[in-house]
Every structure is written in structure tokens, then in C-alpha cells.
């Protein structure tokens, strides 16, 4: 260290400010040559990957772009993938939160029922579940009657002409529809969402519920107005993952079978035109686009429900320095 640098750190020296505070530290950052080596290796690998994409004509990017714009593919994207995901997640989230609340109930019967539900649907692969809905349920029950419980037996015993049946569902026709697939995926998703919601509710301090009860809130109102809003900070990230996973799981609707689905339509076009790889590229591109949009939505929701916990970027409203004024 030179004599000039030493004198600059001493009070009264030429480099020391008049208020006696020490001057700026003349420090140099620690060098990390390994980082530069890793960067070079990554850049080389990325360049090789891009080169293989550009020079290999078998990818068929132009054909894939044409497949992406065909009407059957767009219809499958809208109905089978987007509507299927939204419907399944709506059923899964609502039913999952209800099952989570039942799982945390003080009633042992409700806790047992919710446990059996999560155990059953988490133990069955979705492909097997959809296959059972598509063919097995119709084989077991070709129709389902909605009406008074034991109405047919009661009418037969009393000798009445009406059997108290209000509506009859033809299971063989219903089990091959998109709605049946959405219900099947929603029932399966509810088991996973129940565990996510239960973890989120348990993450909220018990004092919050006690404070709500002290204010005169009922248990249900305290859950809706106090506990669940705070639990959303924990629930939103895994729910975003489940939503993105559901986008991909809609390809399982072919087990119903539902043909208005993205992967089924692209595969059919690829098989018919012998453009297998471009068809795979087209369906991959659509899944990446939908997943990217959902990731942006998840990021915005995480920012909204993570306010005040210091994990997200500060909002403009609270980013003003002290004394700058404003709300």
C-alpha cells in the first residue's frame, strides 16, 4: 500500500474530507475466472444448438408453422387445451379448497372423507382415470337417474305410476364428451389442490383466526376474509405449476376419446401427411406459447399476493424514499 493511500484514510490528511469521515475505499473486486470459462462453454453449446436448428432441414419449421395455423389444430388448442385447462382447474381449485377446509375440520367424519378422496385420486394415474370414464363407467352404468332417493323402489312398492325420476343421463353418450374429460381432470386435480390449499392455510398463524373470532366473525367468514387471503401467498406458486401441468395433461383427453384436442390433431395431421417431426414441432411450440402466457400470469399474481413480505419487487406506491411525500 502506498504512502498516499495510507494518509488518505487518516483525519487531517489531504485526502480526508473536512468532516473527518474516512474517504472512499480503493478496493478491487475478486476475480472469478471460472465464471468466464463457464460463460464461454455455455455460449459455445448454445451456438451449436442454434446451428443444428438452422442447418438441419428435417426440423421442418416452415411446415410446422403451417400446421400450427390449420383450423383443426386451432380448434383443438381452443377447446381441448385452453377450455379443458380452465374448466379442470376451476373444478380442481374450488373442490380442492373445500376438501382442504374439510381436512382441517374438527369433525372426524369430514376429515376421514376428505382423506379418502385425496388418497383415491392421488393414487390413480390420470390416463387410467380418463380411460375408465371413457369406457368403464358406461359399461357399469349405462344411465344415471336423478330424482328422489330410492324413488323407483318406493314407487314399485306403493304401486305408483311415477318413479320420482326427474332427469336421466345417458352415460354412454356423455362419457365421450369434452365435459366428461374436464370433470375427470378436475376431480383428479382437486386432490392435489387440496394438499396445496391445506399447506397454505396451515402457514397462516393461528392468531389471525383467533383475532377474527374476537372481532365476531364466524369460522367461515374468518376463513374467507382473513385466512385464505393470507394463504394465497403460499398457494399461488404451486397452483401456477399445477395449471401449467394441466395444459400438458389435456393431451390425455385422447383416452376419453376426445379428438378436439391439440396433440391429437397435430398427430393426426403428421400421420396423414407423413410430416411427423414438423407436427411435433408445431405442438411443442403451442404448448410453449400457452405455458409462457401462464407463467406471466403467475408472476403477476405472486406480486399481488406477496406484497408486504419482502420477496417481490417493491411497488411504485411504497418505493418513494422517506420524506418524499405521497401516500
CATH topology: MetI-like fold
The residue fraction in helices comes out at 55-70%
Secondary-structure class:
mainly alpha
Sum up the overall morphology in one term: flat
Distance between the termini: 50 Å
CATH hierarchy class name: Mainly Alpha
Average pLDDT for all residues: 84
Domain count: the total is: 1
Rg over CA atoms, rounded to whole Å, is: 30 Å
- Fourth-tier CATH superfamily name: MetI-like
What's the tally of helices? 13
CATH 2nd-level architecture: Orthogonal Bundle
What is the beta-strand fraction? under 5%
Question: How many E strands?
Answer: 2
| Low-confidence blocks of residues | 1-9, 312-327
The helix/strand order is HHHHHHEHEHHHHHH
Numbering strands along the chain, what is their spatial order in the largest sheet? 1-2
Region (Disordered): 1-27
Family: Belongs to the binding-protein-dependent transport system permease family.
Protein name: Polar amino acid transport system permease protein
Transmembrane segments: 36-56, 76-102, 123-144, 164-188, 279-301
Quick summary:
This protein has 327 residues and is mostly helical. It is built from 13 helices and two strands.
Please give a structural write-up.
With 327 residues, the protein is mostly helical. The protein has one domain (60-305): MetI-like (MetI-like fold). It has helices at residues 3-8, 33-55, 61-68, 71-103, 108-122, 126-140, 151-158, 171-174, 178-202, 206-214, 219-249, 262-273, 276-305; strands at 143-147, 165-170. Helix 4 packs antiparallel against helix 5, helix 4 (71-103) packs across helix 9 (178-202) and helix 4 runs antiparallel to helix 11. The model is unreliable at 1-9 and 312-327 (pLDDT under 50). One of its GO terms (cellular component) is plasma membrane.
